Amino acid sequence: MNISAFMATSLDGFIARKDGSLDWLDHANALVPKGEDCGYSEFIEDIDVIVMGSRTFGKVLSFPEWPYGKRRLIVLSSKSLEIPKHLKGTVSCSRETPEALAKRLKAEGAKNIYVDGGLTFQSFLKAGLVHEFTVTIIPVLLGDGIRLFGGIPEDISLDLLSEKHYGFGFVQLRYAIQKPKQ
Ligand SMILES: NC(=O)c1ccc[n+]([C@@H]2O[C@H](COP(=O)([O-])OP(=O)(O)OC[C@H]3O[C@@H](n4cnc5c(N)ncnc54)[C@H](OP(=O)(O)O)[C@@H]3O)[C@@H](O)[C@H]2O)c1
Question: What percent of the chain has pLDDT over 70?
Fold first, then answer.
């Protein structure tokens, strides 16, 4: 089973402003040529389960359309979240630890897990469960916001798998974790 992430960050490492807003990303995306998705559709094609933090889930619910179709999605939350009726067939809520959830999904035969949300990604990374991640660096400095990376108990060594530079200023880096736990 492979656990990965696909994130866009400001050059100074933020995935959203403090209040969760993504206006800076929308602004940057407005300059991207039509039809270019910086590898997102290729990435998501192989994903069978998305694991998302409750804050990111809240944000996605505010989008005009549900972007994940019939793909299975698990929202991590310590609270009992209200899942909209039309999503109940594919979206469920869990309060499992990253370790317990990864173990369960593996036993269920999941192949490719996508973890989304800053804290969620960090908790999987800290638990040694992430295998690889792709960061698309947007040419903007935000100064403050929600971080992609947080504190870790020990260094995490990475292998650079690929790098891509887009004409409109985005730089995409894909890394593998050198020693994932499973
Ligand atoms: N730029 C990008 O590519 C990108 C990608 C994804 C998200 N975002 C943005 O990032 C923001 C949200 O990120 P975030 O870091 O604040 O939060 P997050 O990871 O989306 O959600 C964190 C919340 O999930 C719940 N949770 C339950 N179990 C957890 C666990 N094991 N690990 C972590 N969280 C767990 C907790 O909330 P409870 O109180 O419910 O327990 C926690 O506060 C949003 O604005 C979103 O739009 C940006």
Answer: 99
Ligand 1 centroid from CA 93, angstroms: 13
The pLDDT assigned to 182 comes to 65
Which tens digit of pLDDT belongs to each residue from 116-162? Answer: 999 999 999 999 999 999 999 999 999 999 999 999 999 999 999 99
Which of 10, 27, 54 has most ligand 1 atoms within 8 Å of CB, for mutation? 54
- The angle that helices 118-126 and 98-107 make with each other, rounded to 10 degrees, is 80
CATH classification (class only), 2-150+162-171: alpha beta
Domain boundaries along the sequence of the chain: 2-150+162-171
Q: Is the pLDDT of residue 181 over 90?
A: no
- Å from CA of 167 to ligand 1 middle: 31
Atom of ligand 1 nearest to the CA of 9: 1
Q: Which atom of ligand 1 is nearest to the CA of 121?
A: 19
Question: Which parts of 54-131 are beta strand (E)?
Answer: 72-76, 91-94, 112-116
**Phi, psi (deg, nearest 5) at residue 165:** -115, 130
